[in-house]
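Quick log. Single chain, no ligands specified.
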Amino acid sequence: MTARTPDTPDTANTAPHHRSGQHRPPKGLAGLVGRPVWLEARSPFETRSLKRSALWRGVGIPPGHGRPILVFPGFLASRRSTAALDHVLRAAGWRVEVAPVGRNAGPAQHSIDKACDTLHDLYEETGERVRIVGHSRGGQFGRILAVLYPHRVQQVIGVGTPLIVKYPSYLVVRIPAATLDKLWRRGAFGHVDKMREQGVDDLRYVQFPDEVDLVSVWSRSDGIVDWRLSLEPAATNVEVKASHMGLINSVSGLQGIATALARIP
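-> predicted structure:
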């Protein structure tokens, strides 16, 4: 597995990719309904293949030697969604904690606060800067944590993460996400500091700190997030072939994460 840029799909290239017009997601109706969501049906088969592979025993993953990783689930997901990733990383010797954000469906400020506690605990316990592997929305929050605490975060690996927008335009994702956002801000699920929530949103677009490594792992056949939304100028890109869920539950997806982890010995 090699890092690739969209301009040179058949050539290994670990240099950060800078967005250009040719990689903008489609607009209009195509952008709203054009994702190949049916390709997500392969996810169970991807997981089955992963469990039969050497990766399931940690073979092919850079040895962790007890170094810390914070795993961040995606939107409407849970610890169960990251179970395969958690297992593989632990098998390779990493000290893994999953951010305690439930289904990661609440206000951003609540998820960030909970993940901050885990991040600080990992840093204090191991004495080492923490790597964050975030799936989808979890990668967005990993990016925010790195902006807030660059001295405690060593690397952020966004996996199927829309790094340049808050929500993908695809209706299956955008409608529930935007609806929940409005409900949070109106206090439907308890008190929310609207100004702080906006402040967290603004952090999504702050320049990424130079001292933290940012890697974006994505798939052109992702049925949920358009791969072009994962192209951030600060990130090194790793292209794999997987469904959205398969990005953290497949051989190809885990090989991509291994490539990212190997960037820092």
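Residues 35-261 form a domain with the Rossmann fold fold (CATH 3.40.50.1820).
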